[in-house]
Structure formats: structure tokens, C-alpha cells
UniProtKB/TrEMBL annotation:
<dbReference type="Pfam" id="PF00884">
    <property type="entry name" value="Sulfatase"/>
</dbReference>
<dbReference type="GO" id="GO:0008484">
    <property type="term" value="F:sulfuric ester hydrolase activity"/>
</dbReference>
<protein>
    <submittedName>
        <fullName>Arylsulfatase</fullName>
    </submittedName>
</protein>
<comment type="similarity">
    <text>Belongs to the sulfatase family.</text>
</comment>
<feature type="domain" description="Sulfatase N-terminal">
    <location>
        <begin position="10"/>
        <end position="369"/>
    </location>
</feature>
<dbReference type="InterPro" id="IPR017850">
    <property type="entry name" value="Alkaline_phosphatase_core_sf"/>
</dbReference>
<keyword id="KW-0378">Hydrolase</keyword>
<dbReference type="InterPro" id="IPR024607">
    <property type="entry name" value="Sulfatase_CS"/>
</dbReference>
<dbReference type="GO" id="GO:0005737">
    <property type="term" value="C:cytoplasm"/>
</dbReference>
<dbReference type="InterPro" id="IPR000917">
    <property type="entry name" value="Sulfatase_N"/>
</dbReference>
<keyword id="KW-0479">Metal-binding</keyword>
<dbReference type="GO" id="GO:0046872">
    <property type="term" value="F:metal ion binding"/>
</dbReference>
């Protein structure tokens, strides 16, 4: 590819964070958090305020990004590690074939861990993954020391250092303490430093695709001290607690540092919230650092920027924590696009209300790169929405999103259009219906409301249509069937293992 051709095709910077809530932007009027660089990207770009993760955990969310497919097609409807990633068409693969220099820095969370999935190169840090650390149960070649790039680098700076040194589990959503080493050694800084180095060593004759993939604000909640200090004395808003939520915790589940539900001691929860917000501000400042260097290389105005998260974090909403569940704190994600060189003609400062999902990333970025979109892709390009706010689309946008997550007794199926949400717990039969337009905190379950019955019946019928013919047997004779065994991986993907 010639330099002149490169000049006609923009670079693409995809920035993803792990486990960031949709509402953690100061631009949205959050009473505590500070995100100046993300605010500026949104102010001078386009923000999508109804972006969701259909299967809100790390592995299936990333499958949607890589393939552009809905969960029933990429086959991952729950969380399960060590299932091979054998997809023929991937976002980085298609961009590489079309002449882009492709690089990932940070989290991939694929299997085998060193799979390139179409990238020319991967500098890997998936965070602490138990299946890579359990020396008694996996082959040596899968040991974390062998597959990760960050830990060997860290040990070269601090001999003997390990990810466990702070005593925090990778899923300890309610236990926090500041990072004990110099800030430049933190995984967030490392991800940006390695991304900056890519700008130095990239092929200048090609446009680049860089996926800068942060592990934080996913736990461990370990922000550098300076960032923790920004929030340690803040007056945090209380988590939203629905009138349907648990009222008591007789088994003391909230005392478990890796709890997913329970009544957490107030001081511990406040520290966790301080650390969580601190990690987001830390990432924001490091994104600002990278954008300054991008400007120094003269590539800022020729780079399309997309920012999002793989899923959210409940952080005490309804006395729930982490992700997987269908509530807004878990499924609703931030989503910003920025086009400083006006390559795409976006309506800067626009806020789009149509519902989008992670599967829409692949067709959007391929279109931006003037690259053919494979027929395996089921997402839709978002650029017409970003130009017109949906007012002049050639065809109607999606009316709703079907989401789900297999998780034992907490397995759920759900439908939302961003304004209403219907939830079905497949193992217990419990149903919930929320009017998100009037009740964005999901405080009131309207299943018993006479005024809501027509809408409930409609959304239940939509879910039945989505689940018709599923291998789990969730639908029989046109009705939802309670208690059918959920699976994490659908049969067509299991057959490829």
C-alpha cells in the first residue's frame, strides 16, 4: 500500500476498558467521578447513550467484538474459559487483509491465550486468570508466566514481583487498597506505554489498527495512591436499591471479598467505590497521555477513535456486584466515537438514542476502513446513526436487543429497547419488567402492575420468539419452560473444540 493510499484511509484506535459502568462519565453529571479526556472525546464526537453488552462477561463480550456476531452465532452464551477460538472472520483479521498494520496491547482473553485472531502482533496482559495460574491443573505451556507479557516485564523492574502481592483477588469487587509500586509500573500505564511504542515501530506506509485494551477498572481495585486520594473522602451517591432487592443477608454473603451479592459493610463498600472511580480516572488520564503522543506523531487528525467497555459493574446496586446479571449497572456500557479529522462527517456533540451492541463494532470499523464486511457479521454499522441520529436511515434500526447469560440458578434471558426491559430467570421462572424511561434505576418491578400487562405480554412474546428452537429447550408449545439446564457454550461451538 502506498503512502498516498494510506492518507485516504484513517487509522483506527479502539479503546476498551473492562467492567466500566455506563454512568461513570463526569459529562453525564455524575456527582463524583472525573473523566476529562473521555468527556472531551464525547463533547467533540458522538456518544451512544443506549449501548449494551448482550452477554455481559469478558469472554462472550470479546467474542462479539472479534466476530461482529450475536451470542447465539459466536456460541458463547455464558462464561467459560479454555474453549478454542476458531473463528474464520475477525475484526483484526479483515483489517490486516485489507492492508492495515494491526496490533493489540493488553487484554484479549481468548484461548489459546497467545492466539493472534488476525492481529499481526499481540502484547498481552489478560490480568489474573485462574486457569492460567493453577499449576496443578494445566499444562506448563499455559502457565501465566509463559503467556503473559506484563508480568515478565514487571519482574525485570522489580525482581520477584507478582500480581498477588497486594493480597487482592482478581474478582474481589469489594476489597480495595492502593497500588504499592511506582505508578509507571501499574498495568494501566504499561498498556499505554506499550501502545506508544507501537506508534514508534509501526509500518508508516500502512494505516494502523490499534486495540488498546485495559484490564482495569476490573478488580483488583488497586489504583495508584494519588488517584485513590482523589476519592477516599468523597461523598458518594448510595447505590440504587430496588424494592424487589434482597433485604437481609442471613448467610453473610456480603462479607465474602469476591461476593456477587450481599450486604457489604458500609466502610468496605465506600473504599471499593473510591478505588473503582480512581481506576477510571487513572485510565482517563493515561488515555490523554496517549492522545498527546498521537498528536506528536502527526496522526491525531487521521485516526478514528472508538471507546467502550466489555460490560459494566453493579457495585452494590440492589446489593449486587460484578456483572452477568441483566441490570443496567451490568449490561449498559459507555460508548463514544471521535473523528477529529472529520473523515466520516459525524455530527459532533451528537447523542444517539438507538440501541447498539458490541457486535456493531466490527462492521462499523470495517466500513470506516473501506473494507468489505463479511457475510458472517450480524451487527450493523453505526455511522449513519452518528450522522443523523437515526432520522434518515435507509432501513429501520433494530427495535430491541436480546441478552442473556448462563449462570446456574441466576441464569437470565432479557429483552430491552433501552426504554423498557423484560427479564426472565430461566431456572426459577421469576419475571421482572422495568420502565427504564421513568425508572432508570430499576427500582420498581412492574410485573403486578395492571397498566404494564400489555407491554409485558409483548416483550415476553418477543423473548419466546428469540428462544424458539434453542437447544436448551427454553420454549415448548409457544411457552417459556422453567428449569431447562443452561449451557455456557452452544453445541455448534462445542463441536469445533
Amino acid at each position: 500500500m502506498t503512502t498516498s493510499t494510506h492518507e485516504k484511509r484513517p487509522n483506527i484506535l479502539l479503546i476498551t476498558v473492562d467492567q466500566m459502568r455506563y454512568d461513570c462519565l463526569s459529562l453525564l453529571g455524575h456527582p463524583v467521578i472525573e473523566t476529562p479526556n473521555l468527556d472531551e472525546l464525547a463533547r467533540t464526537g458522538v456518544r451512544f447513550d443506549h449501548a449494551y453488552s448482550a452477554t455481559p462477561t469478558c469472554v462472550p463480550a470479546r467474542a462479539a467484538i472479534f466476530t461482529g456476531q450475536k451470542q447465539t452465532s459466536h456460541g458463547r452464551v455464558g462464561y467459560q474459559d479454555r474453549v478454542p477460538w476458531n473463528y474464520d472472520k475477525t475484526l483484526p483479521g479483515e483489517l490486516a487483509k485489507s492492508g492495515y498494520h494491526t496490533q493489540c496491547v493488553g487484554k484479549m482473553h481468548v484461548y489459546p491465550a497467545r492466539s493472534l485472531l488476525g492481529f499481526h502482533n499481540v502484547i498481552l496482559h489478560d490480568g489474573y486468570l485462574h486457569h492460567n495460574r493453577n499449576k496443578h491443573s494445566v499444562p506448563m505451556q499455559e502457565h501465566f508466566n509463559e503467556v503473559d507479557d506484563y508480568l515478565p516485564w514487571l519482574r525485570a523492574q522489580v525482581p520477584g514481583a507478582d500480581l498477588l502481592d497486594l493480597g487482592l483477588d482478581c474478582n474481589a469487587s469489594t476489597v480495595a487498597r492502593p497500588w504499592a509500586l511506582p505508578e509507571h509500573l501499574h498495568p494501566t500505564n504499561w498498556t499505554v506505554s506499550q501502545s506508544i511504542d507501537f506508534l514508534r515501530r509501526r509500518d508508516p506506509s500502512k494505516p494502523f489498527f490499534l486495540w488498546m485494551s485495559f484490564v482495569r477498572p476490573h478488580s483488583p481495585l488497586d489504583p495508584p495512591q494519588a488517584y485513590f486520594d482523589l476519592y477516599k473522602d468523597a461523598d458518594f451517591p448510595d447505590p440504587v436499591i430496588g424494592d424487589w432487592a434482597m433485604k437481609e443477608d442471613p448467610q453473610g454473603s456480603g462479607l465474602n471479598p469476591v461476593t456477587s451479592k450481599g450486604l457489604v459493610p458500609k466502610r468496605r463498600l465506600r473504599n471499593a467505590m473510591a478505588a473503582y472511580y480512581a481506576l477510571i480516572t487513572h485510565i482517563d488520564h493515561q488515555i490523554g497521555r496517549f492522545l498527546q503522543v498521537l498528536e506528536e506523531y502527526g496522526e491525531r487528525n487521521n485516526t478514528i477513535i472508538m471507546f467502550t467497555s466489555d460490560h459494566g459493574e453493579l457495585m452494590g446496586d440492589h446489593h449486587l456486584f460484578r456483572k452477568t446479571l441483566p441490570y443496567e449497572g451490568s449490561t449498559h456500557i459507555p460508548f463514544i466515537v471521535n473523528d477529529p479529522g472529520d473523515c466520516l462527517g459525524l455530527d459532533k456533540g451528537n447523542v444517539v438514542s438507538e440501541i447498539i451492541e458490541l457486535r456493531d463494532i466490527m462492521p462499523s470499523l470495517l466500513e470506516a476502513a473501506s473494507t468489505e464486511i463479511p457475510d458472517t457479521v450480524e451487527g450493523n454499522s453505526i455511522w449513519d446513526l452518528a450522522r443523523t441520529n437515526g432520522k434518515a436511515l435507509e432501513r429501520p434500526w433494530r427495535e430491541y436487543l436480546h441478552g442473556e447469560h448462563a449462570q446456574g440458578m441466576d441464569s437470565t434471558q432479557w429483552i430491552t429497547d433501552g426504554w423498557e426491559k423484560y427479564i426472565w430467570y430461566s431456572q426459577t421462572g421469576e419475571e421482572q419488567f422495568f420502565n427504564l424511561a421513568e425508572d432508570p434505576g430499576e427500582l420498581h418491578n412492574l410485573m403486578d402492575s395492571p397498566q404494564a400487562q400489555e407491554r409485558i405480554h409483548y416483550w415476553r412474546s418477543v423473548l419466546i420468539q428469540e428462544l424458539e428452537g434453542r437447544e436448551e429447550g427454553y420454549v415448548q408449545d409457544g411457552r417459556l419452560v422453567v428449569g431447562r439446564k443452561p449451557v455456557n457454550i452452544l453445541a455448534h461451538l462445542r463441536s469445533n473444540e
